[in-house]
Design a protein that fits this description.
By secondary structure, the chain is mainly α. The protein is built from four helices and two strands, in the order ααββαα. Zinc ion (ZN) binds at residues 53, 55-56, 61, 96-97, 99-100.
Length: 141
């Protein structure tokens, strides 16, 4: 028998890799998942400046209202874009003091669940405050 190769029939559903309908739907999905610009990301980080710790881990946090060690902490939760060696989206950052940040990111003390809870509590406290702060900053521009 002679080999004839794999020629696509013009009316076959596989005549192009993705048909027009699928391609359009895919690009619509891409458009909907808008990623923040670099500038927006920087605003989220800048908003953390001058803030107290939002993690406030019991027995770890010094609860200092003016804490020089506070930095923007990135969520390590997968749903916030963490993993694969990539830091999570800047939207999922919150101010955390050095002690709490270490507890969350580097120590072996907390369980996975404790890390998760601490992150979600910190974000829950911080996001409304950040929203007001960023709106106020926007108004002065
Ligand atoms: Zn703290």
């Amino acid at each position: 028998m002679k080999r004839t190769g794999f020629k696509r029939k013009p009316d076959s559903p596989f005549s192009s890799l993705a048909n027009r309908g699928t391609a359009l739907r895919r690009s619509a999905i891409k458009r909907r998942v808008r990623k923040p610009t670099v500038e927006e990301g920087a605003h989220y980080l800048a908003a953390c400046r001058g803030e107290p710790c939002y993690l406030r881990v019991p027995g770890v946090c010094r609860l200092n209202p003016i804490d020089e060690t506070v930095v923007p902490c990135h969520s390590n939760l997968l749903e916030h874009g963490a993993g694969k060696g990539i830091k999570a989206d800047h939207r999922y950052t919150f101010p955390g003091c050095g002690a709490c940040h270490f507890w969350l990111d580097q120590s072996t003390v907390p369980t996975k669940q404790e890390r998760r809870d601490a992150t979600l509590v910190a974000l829950g406290r911080w996001i409304p405050v950040r929203k007001r702060k960023m709106a106020a900053l926007e108004a002065t521009r």
